[in-house]
Amino acid sequence: MAAISGHCTFRSHQSPIAVPASSSFYGGDIRSASISFASPSFVRRTHISCQASSDTSLPSSSVNGTAKGEMNDFLHISDFDKSTILKILDRAIEVKAQLKSGDRSFTPFKGKTMAMIFAKPSMRTRVSFETGFFLLGGHAIYLGPDDIQMGKREETRDVARVLSRYNDIIMARVFAHQDILDLAKFSTVPVINGLTDYNHPCQIMADALTMIEHIGRLEGTKVVYVGDGNNIVHSWLLLASVVPFHFVCACPKGFEPDKETVDKAQKAGISKIEITNDPKEAVKDADVVYSDVWASMGQKEEAAYRRQVFQGFQVDEALMKIAGPKAYFMHCLPAERGVEVTDSVIEAPNSIVFPQAENRMHAQNAIMLHVLGL
């Protein structure tokens, strides 16, 4: 009997985002292009249209002619249990130490290629993935916005099946979250989420690695994010649904993270999670104060308006003083100095933004090793 599935397209003033309309979408199977935490409510002023379809086709070929196994992708941190996440982080520490020692003998990616799809440009994502894959023996291929025009010049499902026949792994940095789900559904090689409008799992893995290095642990810490309730916040919430720590998001009213993601993370009962509009109260006794740009890519037309709304949410020396002497400052970069964070905070001794940026490569190396089973 054919499985009935479909899709819903969500259009907002920010960007069109599609999610599957199958009954498995809420708490369902990731392998059928569903997600248990992503929800339409994170897009404000959303209009919804749905269309069902019958799809009995399954991807069945890859570079080596075999279909990939279950859960070989890295799409959301919450797809994995705590022990797996910590195992990946331990591997990142191990491989980083070997690379930092100057030892280049570990080349598990020798003879392998990675396709890197960039609908959104990024210095850190491209250089960290390409350099990391090369240092471990592999070859990465950059495919920019004009090289594929995924979803416009060629359907995502076709791109996935073609690239799977050329490459051993695919990384994609895209706008619509549905694009990464479709790539994973139709690809027969592992797919890594390099960023979507909904989440940014590789960044948060790098952040967790940085915290372990500087604080000595991830569990039991207090992380306070100050700013827009964006894809970085969603990723922190997904991590908090797996690993126990105290997460607080301080944001202006109307800019809170996706409510369903917050609710499901809280219901997981793993971490203490708070959403507040008071940054000064939020940062007290924080181990980490975290910030990001107020207007992300695709929201730049709102930048002037957001600067007005976000007054009082800048991370400055006064806010860091309230946080206390043990608090580190983190930022996923690029930063708009003088907007969401002051120059003095980024350059302060307790700022770990550049070790954090470096750890993108080391965390991603460990993620690639994991999905490739190496």
Low-pLDDT runs of 5+ residues are 1-65
Rg from Cα: 20 Å
- Order of H and E elements: EEEHEHEHHEHEHEHEHEHEHHEHH
Number of helices: 13
- The span between the termini is 37 Å
Q: Assign the structural class, choosing from mainly alpha, mainly beta, alpha/beta, alpha+beta, or little secondary structure.
A: alpha/beta
Shape: globular
Strand content: 15-25%
Number of beta-strand segments: 12
Mean pLDDT: 86
Account of the protein in words:
Helices cover about 35% and strands about 15% of the residues. It is α/β, with parallel strands linked by helices and about 375 residues long. The strands form three sheets. A five-stranded parallel beta sheet has the order 10-9-8-11-12, with helices on one face. α2 (about 125-135) links the parallel β4 and β5. It is globular and about 55 Å long.
Structural descriptors:
374 residues; alpha/beta; four-stranded parallel beta sheet; globular; 13 helices
Write the layout of secondary structure elements.
Layout: E1 4-11, E2 17-20, E3 47-54, H1 82-100, E4 113-118, H2 123-135, E5 139-143, H3 145-148, H4 156-166, E6 169-173, H5 177-186, E7 191-195, H6 201-215, E8 222-226, H7 231-240, E9 246-250, H8 259-267, E10 272-276, H9 279-282, E11 288-291, H10 303-309, H11 317-323, E12 328-331, H12 343-346, H13 353-371
Parallel strand pairs: 4-5, 4-6, 6-7, 8-9, 8-11, 9-10, 11-12
Antiparallel strand pairs: 1-2, 1-3
Helix pairs in contact: 1-13, 2-13, 4-5, 6-13
